[in-house]
Every structure is written in structure tokens, then in C-alpha cells.
Amino acid sequence: MNATPLLRVLGATMVFLAVSMLIPLMLAISQDDSVSKNAFSAGVCVSGFFGIVLFLTTRGRPFTIGRRETVALLPLLAVVATLIGGLPFYLCGNAENFLDASFEALSGITTTGLSLFPDPSVLSPSELLWRAMLQWIGGYGTLVLVIWALPSFGLGGVFMPRRDAVETLAADPQPSFHRLVRSLFVVYGSLTVMCATALLFAGMPLFDSICYSMSTLSTGGFVIESSGPLGFKGVGIHLILALFMMLGAINFTLHGRFISGDWGVYSREFECRILLIVILVAVVLILSFTGKNTSGSTIVSELLTLVSVLTTTGYPGTEM
Length: 320
Fold this sequence. Notes:
With 320 residues, this protein is an all-alpha fold. The chain has 2 domains: 1-157, no CATH class; 160-320, no CATH class. It is built from 13 helices and no strands. Helix 2 runs antiparallel to helix 3 and helix 3 (67-92) runs antiparallel to helix 5. The longest helix has 28 residues, at 3-30. 40% of the residues are buried.
């Protein structure tokens, strides 16, 4: 097994996490939160230092990743991201120990959404933002790993069987890995910005809209208050969250095709039709059981609950 690609990718990942921590660090500085400022500063320094060391020590060496390297790298990436991602939670003092802090980070990176904090409001704004960012990074990271890892096992990933899906994400039928990853990032990032903007115009505060947009597109389900999204009064907010949860659960190559002008892509795709049919049937059942006098806001709240369960987002307060 060649250790060079393992160390270089791990180093690049640690540098990326260090750069990402600069965002909650700047938030802590702007709010004069000394505890969070020190915690994220330490996280940036530790992650950045070891990442740069690993990256530089492997510079200039042959970089070849085979099947064995792929098998070893996937769990190593999860471990490194968990340990680095959990460091700020531990240093801020809200997690009882480093294991709890690492659990919170792992839940975010894997978009599982389980939390050791029944009331997330005990966390500082910087920690809340970092939790949402971990889910957003994990959601995009999953897409990248699928594209990169599956061909190593002869499964082809999205390259071989889904020629129609990738044609609109790149000019040629067999796009390069980097080109496809960049295209998916544009789609993923654009949908996140659209979600945050829509939530903001619907009446959600700016900070809340940013955090919820990241946890919604990743279908992770981290919240900033124990009441979850149902704590926000407004049909518009609930509809926006339901819509973008569905978009986050659908194959992202379809979004790329839609953006490229293929307006009927969703209606032709089997998974989209099934999802819409299930939702429509569920809404009809809800109306039949709750009665004709059910208010529109109640129906929308039930719809939000349904979509949260179907997409495995699992927002608190939306359990069925």
C-alpha cells in the first residue's frame, strides 16, 4: 500500500477544515465571544499545522490511488474529520468530554443529525454555525466520495451507467473528476444560497436562515433551537424547508440538467415521480383523517413533518 496519497489527502482535508473554521472564528470575533474565539483559533492552528506538515512531506512524491488505498482512506477521512471537527465543541466547554464532542462532529459529517445537546441554544452562535457547516460539508463530501470511490471497485460511479445524467454537468460525455466535482459544487452551493435567501424573505432571521439552509440541503437535520423548524410561525417558511429538503434528497445531477434547461427532467425521473406520489397520497390521507375544516397552516406543518421523515432529515418536532 502506498502511504503517500493517504497522507496527502488527509493533509489537504485538515487544511480545508482549518480554513472552514475561519468562518465561525470570524463570527466569534465579531460578537466578542472570547471562549469561542479561543476554541476556534486553536482548531485552526492545530488542523492547519498538521495538515500543512502532512501535505508538504508528501509533495513531489508519486500520487497513485488504487483500490487498497481507497479502502484505507475512506475510514481515515471520517476519523480525521471527526476529531478535528469535534475540537471546537470540546474547547468551548459545552461537551462533557472529547468523546461527546467527537460524536457531535461525526453526527454532522455523516448528516445523521443525532445530537447530545437536547437544547442547542446552550451552544454559542459560532458552535451552531459550525454544526450546520459540518453537515453541509458532509453532504457535499458524500457526493464527492461516491464519484471518486465507486469506480475504484468497478462500479462505474456516475460515469459509465448514467451518461444522460452527466452530459449537462460537463461538455463531454465522460467528464473529468475535477470538472464534475466543480459542477456539483455549483449546483449544491446555488441551492443552498437560494434556500437561505428564500427563508430570509419569508421572515426567518439571517443567522437562522443560513444555518437551516445548510442543514436542509444536506438533509442532516441539525437545528439551533429545541423546537426545530415548527417553532417558526409562517406557512412560507415551512413550505420552503419542505421544498429544499426534497431537492436535497433528489439526485443532484437532475438539478444540473434542470438548470441547463431540461425543464421536464423531474417529471421523467422515476424517483421524483414516486416521491411526489407518496407525498400527495399522504396529504390526502391527512385531510381525510383530520377533517375538511383543517386549516392551511396545519396541513403545511403536516407536510413539513412528512417530508422531514421521507428525506431522513429528521428535524426535531417533526417526528410522526
